[in-house]
Amino acid sequence: MNRLIIVFFLSSLIATSQNHTDLSYYLPQDINYNQNIPTPESVIGHQVGEWHVTHDKLVQYMHALAKASDRITIEDRGKTFENRPLLLLTITSVKNHENIDAIKKKHIDATNNNAVDIKDMPIVVYQGFSIHGNEPSGSNASLLVAYYLAAAKGNYINELLDNTVILLDPSLNPDGLQRFAYWANTNKNINLNPDPNDREYSEVWPGARTNHYWFDMNRDWLPVQLPESRARIETFHKWLPNILTDHHEMGTNATFFFQPGIPSRTHPLTPKLNQELTKNIGNFHAEALNKIGSLYYTEESYDDFYYGKGSTFPDINGGIGILFEQASSRGHMQESDNGILTFPFTIRNQLTTALSTLNAAKNMREDILKYQHDFYKNARQEGIKEATKAIVFGDEKDAAKTFHLAEILSRHKIKFHEIKQDFTANGKRFKKGYSYIIPKNQKNTRLINAMFETRTTFQDSLFYDISAWSFPLAFNVDYAENVSTNNLGEQVTNLQQNIGNVSKQSDYAYLIEWHEYYTPKLLNQLLNKDIRTKVALKQFSMNNKDYDYGTLLIPVQNQKLNGTGLYAFLNKLAKESHIQIDAVKTGLTKGIDLGSRNFKTLKKPEIALLVGDGITSYDAGEIWHLFDTRYNITATKLDTKTIGRANLNRYNTIVIPNMRSLSEPNTKKLKAWAKNGGTIIAYRNTAKWLKEKEFIKLDFEKTNVPAKNISFEEKSDFNGAQVIGGAIFEAKLDRSHPINFGYKNDKIPLFRNTTVFIKADSLSYNNPIRYTKNPLLSGYISKPNLEVLSETVPVQIKKLGKGKVIVFTDNTNFRAFWYGTNKLLMNAIFFRKEL
Ligand SMILES: [Zn+2]
User: 314: which of 135, 244, 406, 532 fits an S-S bond (Cβ 3.0–4.6 Å)?
Assistant: First the structure.
């Protein structure tokens, strides 16, 4: 043997010994497996855990299984942003499959009707994996869970499948899973290297946790704004699963966690019995993990507060959500406090608890079915008590925003109606076609409460995620609770968006009010087409209609398109953006005439959005998504790595999401660009950075909370209580300021998740938005923070040479469902010259 061959032989030996795992490592060995069912390896070409499964291979295997096994059916429920299929496997006994529609119907009937006998019904378990793409042990384990359920033989599996309908969602985040598989596989050594410094274990920005637009999809179960969530929520409501599991990963040095989480942080709307059953289910996980010698813990971290998370959402829908967190190898094998942590080990723990969940479901079937039955029985009682009550919401100037809130109700199967006729409640006018009304007496009355309530007192002062999400505040709609059901019009069963149109062709001018949600989309297309468009800096009225600040004016003469062409183009835009365009024949108005200097010609924005190292990817993704999917605005994603060689003069607007740092040369370059006439729009902590780097002057307020009588043990809770993890605050608007154009009320709810407090300017007209004296609307904030926040300002606009810097301390684009403040960014972009 020559030397080369010896080396090759030795290295392949090592490689084999490090990689060698067979099915016996993972699966129960006390039973037989059906040889006609393909193993994962026979389809995907490698043993589970040897490589990170790519999503396409996962799909291939699941289809192969469904083809080979009469216990499995498979469906494709839609597509991710990157066009990957959103699969669902339904797994149960052959006999149950033959009656699956009847089983589903009876299961749902039991949530509607006290008389349904639940004793012999199968329990429904939804098992979901790896909603965070770089927590891949879940999806990799799903190959084995599915294989086991298809191939296992014997009494236990027969009994399990007879008594259970399993909805298996092998990848809750296909785009993220694919991104992480690419990273871990392309950096894998043949000779696995557990050194945490190896490139394999540190992904590049933005990482694979999120979906295509960098959203954490495990926050979207309630808002349902992303295609992946829409498919999943559709399945959820179709089946109302009794148990839903959500398989995650946490830090490499941890062990394994299963719920219940911290008891004091359970949402008060969740029934007590939910947590007790969660605990009982936990005993099955403990027993199974004891058997394989794996360490675990419960109740010390994570919580069941925000209903937008997968393990908490079921808790307000009669089910039981279970969170699993496995220490992550974040690659194929990594050193940890618990020794070498291998990828197969992480997969085995996920598989083990997926199977112990099913064992718990089988053993606790009647108790859990009864729990759901009672949940809806009690909810119905609560509904009957409020039989004459309803919630109305709407915005008489913005049908699109109202529509999108109603759309969420539709996705959650909440019943709502048109209003019978216009009426006033809470001092707000509700207009037919621009409002909807939700009767409280309905099945999902608890879910309605969870979506609409505001809450300002809490048992605990720490939250794993946001402490408030009140939808009418997020959408900034007018709303009133406890209105009479006498206002109910027809039930809405086929929700449609308003159709836009142009009132008629004009030879003189067209006017468009700025309130509708999609007006920026329309304006962007006008400017892209070089159609001269002006904005009204003052209010006026004509033809018996009041036109608010920010009304757009499109003169007909001297445009690139002739009168007919312009009319056709506007018709197209009106339809695409669902907007009413008014044709006018005269320039004379009550107030500023159409030729007035108070109509300013708008210039097309050329936008760059800073992304990359130093930037919070969630915030950047929210803005990218807003531009790309809502307003069809093309913005360049300018990476902090490439600013140095980019010609910034291509842009007149640069948006900086929450940013920690930027290199000195790039800082200089950015400042020079702004001084030369550019507009910087910056968010959250970037405000501090801009001050530190002397772009602008700002005065910050600070809270000072010295630790008195706080023990070492209490230290972390004490500090945590000063965090604003996400709460909603009221601010007062100066509606005449262009940053506020399109808002019809003089108050606005803002979402805040920072402790950046800016002192108000001494000149009141420089404070277009200011927190009210007692600004807390919903959520948790410590008393000292609330005192400091009072009457500070969330927005400042400062000159820098010939340019401008606009800072927002709050996240106005939060998680794609804060429709209510999206227009602030659009105003900063389109009206930047007038600010
Ligand atoms: Zn996770």
Answer: 244
**How far, in Å, is the centroid of ligand 1 from the Cα of 286?**
21
For helices 822-830 and 519-528, the axis angle rounded to 10 degrees is 20
Sign of the Cα pseudo-torsion (245, 247, 253, 255, in order): positive
Q: List the chain residues with pLDDT less than 70.
A: 1-20
CA-to-CA separations, 45 to 11, 66, 87, 89, 359, in angstroms, rounded = 21, 18, 21, 22, 30
Q: Cα(224) to centroid of ligand 1, in Å?
A: 18
Termini Cα distance of the chain: 79
Residue with tokens 């014997």: 154
For the beta carbon of residue 280, count every other beta carbon within 10 angstroms.
Answer: 15
Length of the chain: 835
Cα 732 to Cα 454, 684, 750: the distances in Å are 19, 19, 10
Ligand 1 centre distance from Cα of residue 11 (Å):
35
**Comparing C-alpha atoms, which of 324, 629, 223 is closest to residue 232?**
223
Q: Give residue for tokens 């993972």.
A: 26
Q: What is the CA radius of gyration of the chain?
A: 29
pTM of the model: 0.96
> Are 148 and 190 a contacting pair, CB within 8 Å?
no
Distance 254 CA to ligand 1 centre (A): 13
Distance 721 CA to ligand 1 centre (A): 23
**Cα distances (angstroms) measured from residue 523 to each of 476, 502, 636, 772:** 22, 15, 19, 32
pLDDT at 463: 87
Task: DSSP letter for 262, please.
Answer: -
Ligand 1 centre to CA of 324 (Å) is 9
Structure tokens belonging to residue 595: 């030729």
Q: How far apart, in whole angstroms, are the C-alpha atoms of residue 22 and residue 528?
A: 59
Say how many Å lie between the CA of residue 774 and the centre of ligand 1: 36
Q: If you measure from the C-alpha of residue 135 to the centroid of ligand 1, how many angstroms do you get, rounded to a whole number?
A: 6
Protein residues placing their CB within 5 Å of the ion ligand 1:
132, 135, 248
pLDDT at residue 21, rounded to an integer: 82
- pLDDT computed for residue 2 by the predictor: 47
Q: What are phi and psi of 276, to 5 degrees?
A: -65, -45
- As beta bridge partners, residue 152 has 33
Q: What is the pLDDT of residue 450?
A: 97
What is the number of other CB atoms lying within 10 angstroms of the CB of residue 684? 22
H or E segment at 333? strand 333-336
Give just the sign of the alpha carbon dihedral 547, 548, 552, 555: positive
| Residues with Cβ within 8 Å of residue 598, at least 6 apart in sequence | 536, 537, 538, 592
> What is the 3 state secondary structure string of 289-328?
HHHHCCCCECCCCCCECCCCCCCCHHHHCCCEEEEEEEEC
Residue 134 CA to ligand 1 center (angstroms) comes to 8
